[in-house]
Design a protein that fits this description.
The complex is a heterodimer.
Chain A: H1 2-11, E1 12-22, E2 30-35, E3 56-59, H2 97-101, E4 107-110, E5 112-115, H3 116-123, H4 127-133, E6 136-140, H5 148-159, E7 164-169, H6 175-179, E8 187-191, H7 197-204, H8 209-221, E9 225-231, H9 239-251, E10 256-261, H10 267-270, H11 291-299, E11 303-306
Helix pairs in contact in A: 3-5
Chain B: H1 11-34, E1 38-40, H2 42-52, H3 54-57, H4 61-75, E2 96-98, H5 101-109, H6 127-140, H7 145-148, H8 153-164, E3 169-171, H9 184-203, H10 211-243, H11 247-262, H12 271-288, H13 299-302, H14 304-313, H15 318-331, H16 341-344, E4 355-359, H17 371-383, E5 389-394, H18 400-411, E6 418-421, H19 422-431, H20 436-440, E7 442-445, E8 449-452, E9 456-457, E10 463-466, H21 468-474, H22 500-532, H23 536-540, H24 545-548, E11 559-567, H25 569-585, H26 591-599, H27 605-613, H28 622-639, E12 649-653, H29 659-665, H30 694-702, E13 717-721, H31 727-743, E14 748-754, H32 758-764, H33 788-797
The chains are: A alpha/beta, B alpha/beta.
Chain lengths: 308, 802
C-alpha cells in the first residue's frame, strides 16, 4: 500500500488551476500552476479552495439553470435539490461525476490529478511567449513544496525545455525538501506574513519560526530569492511589524521586498465551497494605500515594490 | 504661409505659432466632427446631364467616362473653409457622400425619404435634393450596372433580386471596383502634365480610332480635367485672399493659390504641394467609380523626400509639417458612403476604407521608418477620427522606438493602427507572383488587403460568400432548413451519412456549387465594369495601364486579382467539429436527431449547453482548430480553379467587415450550439466568448493558419480588457505577445483594449463577456465567477466609478 501511495505522489499532483498569460507572478508572460493543499490557513487567503489537499466539489449557484442534470447520477446520493446549495458535503466524496453532467458549469470539481508528463505538455504550450517575454512557469497554490516528490519528477523534465521556473512559497517546509529541487528553480517568491510568531499563529494557524529559519538558510544558498509581504490592514501593516520585517531582511542581506495590497477577492469563493477559513470581513486596499508602507521600508533601506 | 518661414522667429512668436496650430487643428476637427453628414446630389445630376445627351452616348465608352467625370470636376461646387491649409471638397456638404446612379445609386435611392430620419447613420438631405434624385431615377432604372450585367431578361431579374436579398453571396463589384492604392508618388512628381506627355507618346504609336487610341484620349481628357479642378481652387483662393482682412489668413490663402496653380497639373515642389496634389486626386478617384477604399497608402514613405527637402531648406518646421498632415487627415473624414439600409447591413459604420500605411521597408528590404512615420502616428493618435484608416507595417528589423510608440498608443486605448507583418506578407505576395521589390512596396487597401502601391488592381472586395449556410444545405440535401425548394446541390440525406467523411463530402459539394455560382455572377459583373464603366483616371495612376493602353477594368494594371471573402470559416469549422464530437465520438445524439434539433432552433437547453461546451476554435486545441483550417483550405482550393476576366487570380480574404452579422441573421441554427439568426464570428476571431484559455491560447490557434496563402488579407481582432492589461506590466506583455504572434507567422492584428466601462456591462450581462480574465498576483479566477460585490470591487480597482 505504502509504495502504491508513494508512486502516486511521485507521478501525480492535485492542481486546481492552470492560468496562462499570467503577468504578475514573476517576469514576463507566465503560466501559473496552482497546486492544491497548504500547511497554512491564512484568514485572508485569496484562494481558499487551495487549502484542502484533495479534490472537492464547488457549486456556483448563479450559473445553475435548475436543469437537475446532476440528480440521479451521484453514487453517494449527495445531490440536494435546493436552489442555493446542491451538495451534501457529509456524503460527497468529490468524484466529480455530477460536474461532468452539468451543462452549465454550475457544479465543478476543484482539483484534478495531473500526471507530471501531462503537466509538462500543458506548461510548454506557451513556450514561445516565455521566450519572447523572458517569462516562464510559476508554481503557486496552495503550497507547491507540499508536492515536492512530484516536483522532483516534474521540474527536471520541464527544465529540459529551458523554461524559467518561479515558485511562490509560504516557507513552511522541511529545508531538505526544497533543497532537493533548488537546482531547478530560477526564482523564489517567499512570503513573510508577520514577524511576530504569536500574531502569525493567530492569523495563519502556524507560528513563523520555521518560515524565518528556512528564509535565513535559503538566502545563503539561493541568490535569486525575493521576499514578499501581503499587506493586511490591521494585521501586519503597523509600523512595528514593518520595521521589524525590514530589519529581518537586512540581517539576511536582503535589499528589497514586494508588497501586495490585500484584496477581498478570495471571499467570493467561500460561498462555493465547504472548506477554507471563516469569512474575513475586510475592505480591499489599493496600491495607493501602500505608499506609507513603502516609505517605511525605504526608510530602512529596503526597496519596496508595490503591486497594483 | 511659406513666405515668412525662412527668417528666424523670436521664441515667443514660435510659442504663439504653436498654439495657433493647435487651435487651427482643433477648429478643423470640431467643424468636421460636429457636421451632420449629408447626401450630395451634384455628381448624380451632372453625370445624368452628360449621359442624357444622345451625342455623348455615341462616343466610345471610355471617352464618355472621362468627359462625364471632367464635367463633375469642373461643375461641382467648391469651397475653402476657414483655417484650411489643404483644400478640396469631396462633395457639396462639408461632410457628405455622392450618389452613383450608374452603379449602386438606384438601389440606394430606395431610401431617399428615410435618409434623414433613420436611426443608423442618418444623412441630411433637403426636399429639393430628394426631388432632384427622384427625377433622375427613371433614366437609370434599367441602365445601372447590375441590371446590365446579364443580357437575358430572366438572368437580369434573377441576379438583381438575388443581390437585393443576398443570402448566399453578395457581389460588391456591381457597385464599382476601386480598392486600390494609386501611384500618387508619380502624380506628385510629374503632375498631370507629365502623365499627358506620357499618354501622347504612347498614343502616337497606336492606330487612330483604335480602342487603345481612345483610352489614351480619355486619359488626356481626365488628366487635364484634374489639373483644371486644382486651378478652380487657385482662383477661389485668390478671390478670397482679396477680401480677407486678417493678414495672416490672407497670406495662407495666397499660398493655397500658389499650391493649386502648381498641382496637380505640374510636379509638386514642396511638402504642402505634394499633399495637396494627392488630395485632389483622392477626391477625383472617389468620384470616378465606387467611393470606397481609394487609399493614399504609404504616405510616410513617398512623401519623405519632400518633407526632408523642406525641413533642410528651412521652408517648414517639423511642427508645420505635422500641421499639414493633420489638416489632410481631417479632410479624409469629409467623405462618407451613401448607402441604403439594405446595403448598410453589409457595409456598416460609414466605412470609407481610405488607408494610410506607415512603416515597413524600402524596395531593397531596408527599414523605411522616418520622421514622417512618427508624425503620422502622432496625428492619428491625437485626432482619433473616423478616417483615414491608419495601418502600420512591422518587420523583424523595425526599430524599437517605432514598435514602442505603437504599443503605447494601443495600450492607451487607441484601436489604431492595425498591424501588418512584412515578413509574412512579402513572402505571401511573392507566392502570388509579385516581384519582390513590388511586394516590399505593399500597403493595405480597404480593410486589410495587401496590394502593391500603384501597381495592383486587386478588386479586393469583389464578393463575399456565406460559408456556414452551406453546412445547412449539406445537412438537408441542398435545401434550407425551412424550405422545400432546393437552393444548393443535391447531396446525400443525413440518414445515410455514416461517417464524418460523408458530412465533409456533402459540405464540399455545396461549397463548390455556390462558390462556382458566385464566380459566374462575378464574371458577368467584371465584364459589365469593363464594358460600361471603364476608369481612365484610376488607370492613369496604376502602373501598366498606360504602357499597355488597356484600362484597369480590362486588365491593364501590372497585377490583377479579385478578392472573395470567406465569411464564417470559424463557425463552419466549429460546427463541423461539433458534429464529429456529438455524433461520431461521444455518440450523444444521432445525426438525424441533430438535424431535427437544428430545424427546431436547438430548443433543448441542455443539449445546447452541451454543444456550446464542445471545444471551439481559439483554445489552442489542434483538432478543433484544424476544422477551421480545413474550411479555409477547401475554399481556396475552389478559387484556384478559376481566373478572373482581367487575367488575375481569385484570392481568399478572411475578414468580414459587418457581413458576418448579416449572413448570420439569414442563416439557420448550426451544430456548435449557435441559434438561428445569431451573428457569426468576425474574420478569423473565435466565436464570441468561446476563447476560454486567454490570449496566448487564442494566438496559438490563429498561428496554425498558414498566412502565406491568405492572399486577400485577414482580420484578427484581438481584444483585451483593460483589467488584464493594466499598467507598465500590461504594456510590456502586449508588446511581447504581438512579437510572438508575428515571429511565428501571424499576418495582421487589430488590437482592441476595451474601455474599462465594459466591465460594468460584463457585470450586468455575463453572457456578453464570458471569459474576462482577472490577473492579480497568485490569484485564480475568472471575472464571471465572482460575486456581484467582488465584481464591483474589481471594477473599482480598474479605476472607474461604479
Amino acid at each position: 500500500m505504502g509504495t502504491e501511495k508513494d508512486k502516486k505522489h511521485k507521478n501525480y499532483a492535485v492542481i486546481f488551476d492552470i492560468q496562462r498569460f499570467s503577468l504578475h507572478d514573476g517576469p514576463g508572460i507566465r503560466t501559473t500552476i496552482f497546486f492544491k493543499g497548504c500547511p497554512l490557513s491564512c484568514a485572508w487567503c485569496q484562494n481558499p479552495e487551495s487549502q484542502k489537499a484533495g479534490p472537492e466539489m464547488a457549486f456556483y449557484a448563479e450559473q445553475c439553470q435548475e436543469s437537475y442534470a446532476c440528480t440521479g447520477i451521484c453514487p453517494q446520493n449527495a445531490i440536494l435539490r435546493a436552489k442555493q446549495s446542491r451538495i451534501n458535503y457529509d456524503r460527497c466524496d468529490a468524484c466529480g461525476k455530477c460536474a461532468l453532467e452539468c451543462p452549465f458549469n454550475a457544479l465543478r470539481i476543484i482539483g484534478k490529478n495531473w500526471h507530471y508528463k501531462e503537466l509538462v505538455d500543458e506548461s510548454i504550450k506557451d513556450k514561445d511567449y516565455f521566450l519572447d517575454s523572458k517569462g516562464g512557469v510559476t508554481l503557486s497554490g496552495g503550497e507547491p513544496v507540499m508536492h515536492v516528490k512530484f516536483l522532483q519528477n516534474f521540474l527536471p523534465l520541464l527544465k529540459k525545455h529551458g523554461i524559467h521556473v518561479n515558485i511562490e512559497t509560504c516557507g513552511v517546509f522541511k529545508f531538505k525538501e526544497i533543497e532537493s529541487i533548488l537546482l531547478y528553480l530560477d526564482l523564489i517568491y517567499y512570503d513573510i506574513k508577520h514577524i511576530d510568531p504569536k500574531v502569525h499563529k493567530q492569523y495563519t494557524g502556524a507560528d513563523n519560526r520555521l518560515i524565518l529559519d528556512n528564509f535565513t538558510r535559503m538566502v545563503k544558498v539561493f541568490p535569486k530569492l525575493q521576499a514578499r509581504i501581503p499587506i493586511i490592514p490591521g494585521v501586519n501593516n503597523d509600523r512595528g511589524n514593518i520595521l521589524a520585517t525590514a530589519r529581518f531582511l537586512k540581517q539576511n542581506n536582503q535589499t528589497s521586498i514586494h508588497c501586495l495590497p490585500y484584496h477581498s477577492l478570495g471571499a467570493a469563493k467561500l460561498a462555493r465551497i465547504n472548506s477554507g477559513p471563516a469569512p474575513f470581513n475586510l475592505q480591499s486596499i489599493t496600491a495607493k494605500d501602500l505608499l506609507p508602507i513603502k516609505q517605511m521600508f525605504q526608510g530602512e533601506g529596503i526597496h519596496a515594490v508595490v503591486y497594483d | 504661409m511659406q513666405l515668412s518661414m525662412t527668417e528666424e522667429k523670436p521664441i515667443h512668436q514660435k510659442c504663439q505659432q504653436k498654439s495657433q496650430q493647435k487651435t487651427r487643428i482643433q477648429n478643423l476637427k470640431t467643424a468636421v466632427q460636429n457636421y451632420k453628414p449629408g447626401v450630395c446630389t451634384e455628381r448624380a445630376i451632372i453625370w445624368t446631364t452628360y449621359f442624357n445627351n444622345r451625342d455623348n452616348r455615341k462616343k466610345p465608352q471610355v471617352i464618355q467616362m472621362a468627359e462625364a467625370l471632367k464635367d463633375v470636376l469642373l461643375k461641382k461646387s467648391i469651397n475653402i473653409y476657414p483655417d484650411e491649409l489643404i483644400v478640396g471638397n469631396f462633395s457639396s456638404k462639408r461632410v457628405g457622400g455622392s450618389i452613383y446612379p450608374e452603379l449602386h445609386g438606384v438601389p440606394v435611392v430606395e431610401d431617399v425619404f428615410k435618409f434623414s430620419g433613420r436611426k443608423t447613420t442618418p444623412l441630411q438631405i433637403s426636399g429639393s435634393e430628394i426631388w432632384q434624385l427622384l427625377k433622375i431615377v427613371p433614366f437609370w432604372l434599367f441602365k445601372f450596372l447590375a441590371i446590365r450585367a446579364y443580357k437575358s431578361p430572366f438572368k437580369k431579374i434573377r441576379f438583381v433580386f438575388s443581390q437585393l436579398r443576398a443570402v448566399f453571396y453578395l457581389i460588391n463589384e456591381s457597385g464599382g471596383i476601386s480598392h486600390l492604392a494609386p501611384d500618387y508618388e508619380k502624380l506628385i512628381q510629374i503632375g498631370t502634365d507629365g502623365i499627358i506627355k506620357e499618354a501622347n507618346q504612347y498614343q502616337s504609336s497606336v492606330p487612330k480610332k483604335s480602342e487603345k487610341y481612345y483610352f489614351y484620349e480619355a486619359v488626356k481628357i481626365i488628366a487635364g480635367g484634374l489639373a483644371q479642378f486644382g486651378e478652380r481652387y487657385a482662383k477661389l483662393a485668390r478671390n478670397m485672399a482679396k477680401d480677407e482682412s486678417d493678414p495672416v489668413r490672407k497670406k495662407e490663402l495666397e499660398a493655397i493659390e500658389q499650391a493649386c496653380l502648381q498641382v496637380p497639373g505640374k510636379g509638386a515642389k514642396t511638402f504642402q504641394q505634394a499633399v495637396q496634389s494627392l488630395f485632389f486626386a483622392q477626391i477625383a478617384i472617389n468620384l470616378e467609380s465606387l467611393d470606397n477604399s481609394v487609399c493614399p497608402g504609404r504616405m510616410d514613405y513617398y512623401l519623405f523626400p519632400y518633407y526632408k527637402k523642406d525641413i533642410q531648406s528651412g521652408l517648414i518646421s517639423k511642427e508645420e509639417a505635422k500641421e499639414i498632415v493633420a489638416a489632410f487627415s481631417i479632410k479624409m473624414s469629409e467623405i462618407i458612403p451613401v448607402f441604403s439600409k439594405r446595403i448598410t447591413r453589409f457595409h456598416g459604420g460609414m466605412f470609407s476604407g481610405q488607408v494610410v500605411t506607415v512603416g515597413g521597408t524600402d524596395y531593397d528590404g531596408n527599414d523605411s521608418t522616418n520622421e514622417l512615420t512618427y508624425i503620422f502616428l502622432e496625428v492619428m493618435d491625437e485626432l482619433r477620427m473616423r478616417q483615414p484608416n491608419y495601418h502600420a507595417r512591422i518587420h523583424v528589423k523595425s526599430p524599437e522606438k517605432y514598435i514602442n510608440t505603437i504599443n503605447e498608443i494601443l495600450s492607451n486605448g487607441g484601436n489604431s493602427p492595425a498591424l501588418y507583418n512584412d515578413d509574412i506578407i512579402v513572402e505571401m505576395l511573392c507566392k502570388q507572383g509579385y516581384k519582390i521589390s513590388d511586394a516590399r512596396n505593399y500597403t493595405a487597401v480597404g480593410c486589410v488587403e495587401p496590394v502593391s502601391q500603384g501597381k495592383s488592381f486587386a478588386s479586393t472586395d469583389a464578393a463575399l460568400l456565406n460559408v456556414p449556410i452551406l453546412l445547412e444545405l449539406a445537412l438537408n440535401q441542398g435545401k434550407r432548413f425551412n424550405s422545400l425548394v432546393r437552393s444548393g446541390a443535391k447531396t446525400m440525406p443525413v440518414s445515410k451519412m455514416k461517417t464524418m467523411a460523408d458530412v465533409n463530402h456533402a459540405f464540399e459539394i455545396q461549397l463548390s456549387f455556390k462558390l462556382n455560382k458566385l464566380i459566374r455572377d462575378l464574371k458577368a459583373v467584371e465584364s459589365a465594369n469593363r464594358r460600361l464603366h471603364p476608369t481612365p483616371l484610376t488607370s492613369m495612376l496604376l502602373d501598366g495601364c498606360l504602357k499597355s493602353g488597356v484600362c484597369s477594368t480590362a486588365g491593364g494594371a501590372a497585377y490583377n486579382f479579385s478578392g472573395i471573402q470567406c465569411v464564417g470559416p470559424v463557425d463552419t469549422g466549429d460546427a463541423l467539429y461539433a458534429i464529429e464530437q456529438a455524433v461520431f465520438v461521444d455518440k450523444r445524439i444521432s445525426i438525424k436527431d441533430l438535424v431535427k434539433l437544428l430545424k427546431n432552433n436547438i430548443n433543448d437547453k441542455k443539449l445546447r449547453a452541451y454543444l456550446r461546451n464542445l471545444i471551439k476554435f481559439g483554445n489552442d486545441d489542434e483538432e478543433a482548430d484544424n476544422r477551421t483550417i480545413y474550411v479555409i483550405k477547401e475554399f481556396m482550393k475552389i478559387l484556384k480553379k478559376h481566373e478572373n476576366t482581367r487575367g488575375g487570380k481569385y484570392v481568399a480574404g478572411l475578414y468580414s467587415v459587418t457581413a458576418h452579422q448579416y449572413f448570420g441573421e439569414v442563416t439557420g441554427a448550426l451544430p456548435h450550439g449557435r441559434k438561428k439568426g445569431e451573428s457569426f464570428a468576425s474574420g478569423i476571431a473565435p466565436v464570441n466568448g468561446m476563447d476560454k484559455n486567454g490570449p496566448t491560447a487564442l494566438i496559438n490557434s490563429v498561428n496554425r493558419i498558414d498566412f502565406t496563402e491568405t492572399a486577400n488579407g485577414i482580420n484578427f481582432n484581438l481584444k483585451f480588457d483593460s483589467l488584464c492589461l493594466r499598467g507598465q506590466t500590461g504594456l510590456l506583455a502586449l508588446g511581447n505577445i504581438l512579437k510572438t504572434y508575428f515571429r511565428r507567422g501571424g499576418m495582421q492584428v487589430q488590437v482592441n483594449i476595451m474601455d474599462p466601462k465594459i466591465l460594468l456591462k460584463a457585470r450586468d450581462n455575463p453572457e456578453l463577456y464570458p471569459n474576462l480574465l482577472v490577473r492579480v498576483s497568485g490569484y485564480s479566477a475568472y471575472f464571471n465567477d465572482l460575486t456581484q460585490g467582488m465584481k464591483d470591487e474589481i471594477i473599482r480597482r480598474t479605476c472607474i466609478t461604479v
